[in-house]
Design brief:
This protein has 106 residues and is α+β, with helices and mostly antiparallel strands. The protein has one domain: Orthogonal Bundle (Arc Repressor Mutant, subunit A), CATH 1.10.10. It has 5 helices and 3 strands, in the order H-H-E-H-H-E-E-H. Strands 1-3-2 form a 3-stranded antiparallel sheet.
Length: 106
């Protein structure tokens, strides 16, 4: 069996691509902006700020959680979400370095 295409690239390149994919939807940007403005985790009210169905918002939350930008804690039948500060700092450093490196090449 052949190598996957992602195996042909460095961990850093794959991580940047994964982050970029997670950030590539306006609903996810809105969710991140909303969570970033809160000091505690939010349950339920996220659906009220994004003009999408509960199921679609859940899919976006799952993608953000998959890449680690947010974390969710289950409290009974609800999950409360907040920014994962450590992952956010890592993403910020990776993307900032990547954009600076590309800019310096041009």
């Amino acid at each position: 069996m052949g190598r996957s295409k992602s195996a042909s690239f460095s961990h850093r390149e794959n991580r940047i691509a994964d982050l970029a994919k997670a950030l590539a939807h306006p609903a996810r940007i809105a969710i991140l902006e909303y969570l970033a403005g809160r000091s505690s985790c939010m349950c339920g009210s996220i659906v009220d700020i994004v003009p999408l169905s509960q199921a679609t918002v859940s899919q976006h939350l799952a993608e953000l959680k998959r890449v680690g930008l947010i974390k969710g804690e289950t409290e009974g039948p609800r999950t409360c979400y907040c920014i994962d500060r450590q992952a956010w700092d890592e993403a910020h450093q990776l993307l900032q370095r990547f954009l600076s490196d590309v800019k310096s090449c041009c």
